[in-house]
Amino acid sequence: MRATAELADVCIVTGDTKVVERGNIEGMVINTSGIGVRSEGLDENFEVVSQYREVSNPWLLDSNLREGDKIILSGTIGDHGIALLSSREGYDFDVEVKSDTAPLNKLMERALKVGGIVSAKDPTRGGLSNALNEWAEKSGIGNRGGGRIHSSEGWR
Fold first, then answer.
1. Is residue 26 domain-resident?
2. How far apart are CA 28 and CA 103, in angstroms?
3. Range of the domain at 55
4. Can you give the CATH number for the domain in which 69 is found?
5. Residue 90 lies in a domain
6. Is residue 113 domain-resident?
7. Is 79 exposed, middle or buried (0-12, 13-18, 19+ CB in 10 A)?
8. What pTM value is reported for the model?
9. What does each of the 156 residues of the chain score in pLDDT, given as a tens digit?
């Protein structure tokens, strides 16, 4: 954890322990949360956005997407999910499957310098389809035909 925190240039400031019944968990559980401050890069990013369209809330929110926005993938799709599945279920592949989890703060700093970003999401839990559904639902787009949107919470 320290090596990853150093790579991301963040500090670990606290820890916690949990008591669970014997046999209910294998290995270690790590929970993270972060506290950030508004950066000049975020403000400059939204100056670029304002040249193209209005945004009611200048934070990177799921609800900021509008019809016509482009979605950019910054890496591979499905590595984290297949790594977890293969580990949990004991699947064996001819190649080593590694999760694609990594600190994203430096990637986001570079992206904000380019500008024009209205939302960002790390779709490790739930995958790409869940991320797209969350964006569509929270932004109120993509479901004009009266069909159902499927999310990790079920059909709606």
1. no
2. 20
3. 37-141
4. 3.90.650.10
5. yes
6. yes
7. middle
8. 0.73
9. 899 889 988 888 887 777 888 888 877 777 777 787 899 999 999 999 999 999 989 999 999 999 989 999 888 888 888 888 888 888 888 888 887 778 888 999 999 999 999 999 988 777 888 999 999 999 999 765 544 444 444 444
